Amino acid sequence: MQTTFPRLLMERAAKHPGDTAMREKEYGIWQVSTWREMADMAAAVAAGLHQAGLRRGEHMVIIGSNRPRLYAAMLAAQILGAIPVPLYQDAAAAECVFPINNADVRFAVVEDQEQVDKLLEVREQCPQLAHIYYHDPRGLRNYDEDGLWSLDELVAEGGVYVKQHPGFIEEQIEMAQPQDVAAMFFTSGTTGNPKGVVHTHLGLLDRAQAGAKFDRITERDEVLAYLPPAWIGQNIFSYAQWLLCGYAVNCPESTATVTIDLKEIGPTYYFAPPRVFEGLLTSVMIRMEDAGALKRKLFHACMGVAKRVGNAKANGESVGMLDALKYWLGDLLVYGPLRNTLGFSNVRVAYTAGEAIGPDLFSFYRSIGINLKQLYGSTETAVFVCMQPDHEAKADTVGVPIDGVEIKIDDNGEVLVRSAGLLKEYYKRPDATAEVLTEDGWYRTSDAGFLDAGGHLKIIDRVKDVGRIKGGANDGAMFAPKYVENKLKFFSFVKEAVAIGDQRDRVCAMVNIDMEAVGNWAERRNLPYAGYTDLAQKPEVYELIQECVEQVNADLAADALLAGSQITRFLVLHKELDADDGELTRTNKVRRGFIADKYGVLVDALYGGLSEQFIETQVKFEDGRTGSISATLKIRDAKTFAPVKAAA
């Protein structure tokens, strides 16, 4: 698109000044910001930053939750031709050092005291960080640090400057071109330091427009912005498409109120990574286990109907009259109330992305009448590459290439993408840029996949993660760890899983239990426990997880391609995998190589035939302190199944 983010903002403010642009829940009440108010706020922040010395081409860090004033700060930076760099608000202070120094950041706009404390903690390592502005003043009254200002002061000073220089903002906006850099997003850094992904106005808006056109998104839609703004998915849905389409973006009061706020807003356009959908399903299953016998029986009977015919109805296929009647009754008694409980009553289209979603999980939501679809993309592609059309949502594909996208499969099975939304470069990393961008404009995704007969893209796993079983009965069989892990994570009792098997004679797995789900299960059986570590090693819990593992094995046996990936041995970890301990990325992706090294003694025990193994692990607490957790972990064998031969 031949425009920029600030131009879109000013056009919205001119054409629809009184329409709702954003809502923010504060003290239990939704506060409205109109398009005119957002434009005035962004202009005042821009003028204030200009007076403080922010210049065209500089980077400005933004850290916090979704807040109207932080969105205004991003727009303010773009008005001046500076480049906003959102960072994850749950990142530890030390994780902020590399991005700040890599991008030579002098200015930061943050949400609250927690983020201020982080930046003050690392200031000695980032001496150029001279200006820190905060949105929420609570707890900061007695802070006396050089360069620490409230956004209120910045807006007040900027407002005066705008009045004294009436043409300043327009002049700044006109200087920007669509090909200019609009934002930089740091990758999750699964293998070393994160890389700064540089995107232009043209690239981000081109993909945002293609995605909006695909699903007919308009100003009448409602969006709940609850994911980290540093994740490009949230940024596209609640920033780029917000400015393009003009719908209202709603910001929850806190992470604790998201479920309540979801029901109050009733979004029509919803986006979440698989982990969120897993968590919602877990909460549903816990509530059903606590329900009376009659309700449980009704729920399971209706879900049986949904499992049998729900997906066919969602894909526009005809079902028998009797099944249609049963589904209608199920919708009246179970599916409709369930959608309302989840906050999805008004959802017209819901997307999941970020990593593959388990097919059973995907089918569950579609079967109860939620138009959940998968999309495929990444930070480097500005999200939108492939999307699933209505009535063509398949659990094992990620959709068809949308407008402006070309896809081809390399000789090694890697998916290559070409579109206007590709990254301009990795910041200060010409070597890394050359590795992923070919001379003729193709981006190497690092994903292994293929296009099926219907033109849908099917992703198997990361190219580097797809392996082979070596030796044993399944010698040479394909091993796709993410596929196995996702099937395990469909069960509400499993929060995370790590599958190991490449170049080994069999597959083993390490499992994290879901503390809420398993804790609830244990309490209903009067099973006492002293905490996560104690609960995880209960024999009864191992029996529970073994049932899940063996069900996965039975499912894998029916897949000719992945029957050799059945899990032969498993253990339940003594602690939850945590981003603060380096085991997950900030987008909650498993750092499989790191975990294999860190828990090497457990891997050796799994493959060495041991029945238990002692381990002591260092952990990092939220306040920065470190400690250790030790336990003797049990190791169990799991039943495997002979591959099911396809019918002739």
Describe this structure in words.
The chain folds into 3 domains: 5-272, Rossmann fold; 273-370, no CATH class; 467-637, ANL, C-terminal domain (GMP Synthetase, Chain A, domain 3), CATH 3.30.300.30. Helices cover 39% and strands 22% of the residues. The protein is built from 21 helices and 28 strands. Strand 3, helix 3 and strand 4 form a beta-alpha-beta unit. The longest helix has 22 residues, at 293-314. It is globular, with a radius of gyration of 25 Å.
Please report the total strand number as a whole number. 28
Name the CATH architecture of the largest domain. Answer: 3-Layer(aba) Sandwich
Helix content: 25-40%
**Count of folded domains:** 3
Protein structure class: alpha/beta
Distance from first to last alpha carbon: 52 Å
Q: Give the biggest beta sheet.
A: 5 strands, parallel
Classified in CATH, the superfamily of the largest domain is ANL, N-terminal domain
- Which outline best applies? globular
Mean pLDDT: 92
Please report the first level of CATH classification, the CATH class of the largest domain. Answer: Alpha Beta
CATH fold descriptor of the largest domain:
Rossmann fold
Based on CA atoms alone, the radius of gyration comes out at 25 Å
Low-confidence stretches: none
